[in-house]
Write a structure and sequence with these properties.
By secondary structure, the chain is of the alpha+beta class. It has eleven helices and 13 strands. The protein starts with 8 loop residues before the first strand and ends with a helix.
């Protein structure tokens, strides 16, 4: 077997045009610093620049560390570009990235595979919306999300049926498709997964946000959420969270890393919400905290992800 070469020259691709641009810039700054600490030559390139493709080609990197979140970064588009340029990159390929980014598509895949995920209704712009039918199916309390946004952008918790129409309108302001999901009360537990052919689940992490749910501010403002490792649920529930995270990673065909978000109810039921293929890598982010609990410090985590990118796809 040919030895996999080490990436010494890495482009950190950042910024972009999505609603999560500022988060991306923060992620990229910390990833670039970590890679330099481990001996890599790093060039930071903003994909919002008109000539960013030419910049990548000029650098001629061994690998690209994609630090883009949301559209035009996490959805398979940049992955396809790098495939065409024949440049290795950190994270999942085109199909897995697109499936995970589109909450409606990933819910369909989870449903077909029999993974426990809350009941839902999908809505599409231009099609009629029957509010009474949604409430009858999901109950008065639900969660409304744009299909293709991350970081809880455009997301609402609906407490009673009178709030549903406004929540749907808010989500449609962000996307052509909207997911309305049955609300499940419980502990928010996330599980990171690292690897390609051989994958490992990181320790469970319970999220305790200062707000009602883990919204944009809770994710990215220090002090607005607490991370508890391991999650304060039963060992059986922790095992099930990790099992679902590994199953979702394999099912979508993810590579390098992913992070699965779950809810654990008071009676120990575990429900899979969604999977992220480019989790945040800021100082308040979840995957680095979980990795640290497993004995993997942030620079070593970044180094490992670049090494995984160099393995044949």
């Amino acid at each position: 077997m040919n030895e996999v070469r080490r990436a010494t020259n890495v482009v950190v691709l950042m910024g972009g045009r999505s609603a999560e641009r500022e988060v991306s810039l923060s992620t990229a700054a910390q990833v670039a610093a970590a890679l330099r600490e481990t001996g890599h030559a790093v060039t930071e390139i903003d994909s919002a620049e008109p000539d960013f493709i030419e910049q990548i080609r000029t650098v001629g990197p061994d690998a690209v560390f994609i630090c883009l979140h949301g559209r035009f970064g996490e959805d398979g588009t940049v992955q396809g570009l790098l495939e065409l340029l024949d440049i290795p990159y950190v994270g999942s390929g085109v199909l897995a990235s697109a499936l995970a980014m589109d909450k409606l598509m990933s819910k369909r895949v989870f449903e077909q595979a029999g993974l426990a995920s809350p009941e839902y209704v999908e809505l599409h712009r231009g099609q009629p919306v029957d509010l009474d039918a949604i409430v009858a199916k999901l109950g008065a309390k639900s969660v409304v999300k744009p299909a293709n946004e991350g970081s809880s952008v455009g997301m609402s918790i609906v407490h009673e049926s009178s709030e549903l129409a406004a929540a749907i309108e808010k989500a449609f302001a962000c996307d052509e498709g909207v997911l309305v999901e049955r609300f499940v009360a419980g502990a928010e537990v996330t599980v990171g997964v690292i690897g390609n052919a051989d994958i490992m689940a990181l320790p469970t992490l319970e999220i305790v946000p200062e707000h009602e749910f883990y919204d944009y501010e809770s994710k990215y403002v220090p002090g607005m959420s607490s991370h508890i490792i391991p999650a304060r649920v039963s060992q059986e529930a922790r095992d099930e969270c990790q099992k679902l995270a590994l199953a979702a990673h394999r099912l979508l065909g993810c590579r390098g890393m992913s992070r699965a978000d779950t809810i654990v109810t008071a009676d120990g039921e575990v429900w899979l919400l969604e999977i992220n293929t480019i989790p945040g890598m800021t100082s308040t982010s979840l995957l680095p905290d979980s990795a640290r609990a497993a004995g993997i410090e942030f620079p070593q985590l970044c180094e490992r992800l670049v090494a995984l990118a160099m393995e044949p796809r």
